């Protein structure tokens, strides 16, 4: 999984989350994702809220290897992606389809994360001619 997505952060683009100011955790069981400010949570803290799952670093995941568990006392690091995998994953190596599935799951989960205050949501389209005129909308068409 490695450094996918980190090139934008290295160039200093995007929101706080996109620029690597947070650690992201993806739950492999249901596809949810969370963000943590770097150094504010430990692996044990995340695992305690997710019984039956263990935390592994996306950087350490390799085809043909068993995903290593992050040490309980390890703090989540900014800019890193972590996965909560079922404890059964400690018994079998990852396959290429497994990694592809996790990458797709992470991409979907990250799109669902709420935007940060540094990135305002796009304006919603005006519902009427009057509203478009008041808001300074371009053109005078009905919507």
Describe what this molecule looks like in 3D.
This protein is an alpha+beta fold and 143 residues long. It has one domain. Helix content is 24%, strand content 15%. It has four helices and four strands; from the N terminus they run H-E-E-H-E-E-H-H. A four-stranded mixed β-sheet has the order 2-1-4-3. A hairpin with a 5-residue loop joins strand 1 and strand 2. It starts with 5 loop residues before the first helix and ends in a 9-residue tail after the last helix. The N terminus and C terminus are likely disordered.
Layout of secondary structure:
Elements: H1 6-10, E1 22-27, E2 33-37, H2 43-48, E3 53-57, E4 81-86, H3 96-112, H4 129-134
Parallel strand pairs: 1-4
Antiparallel strand pairs: 1-2, 3-4
Region (Disordered): 1-23
Mean pLDDT: 75
Q: What is the structural class?
A: alpha+beta
Distance between the termini: 44 Å
Multimeric state of these chains? single chain
InterPro entries: PADRE_dom
Pfam family, one: PADRE
Region (Disordered): 1-23
Task: Tag the structure with descriptive keywords.
globular, disordered C terminus, alpha+beta, PADRE_dom, 15% strand, four-stranded mixed beta sheet, disordered N terminus, single chain, 4 strands, 4 helices, 143 residues
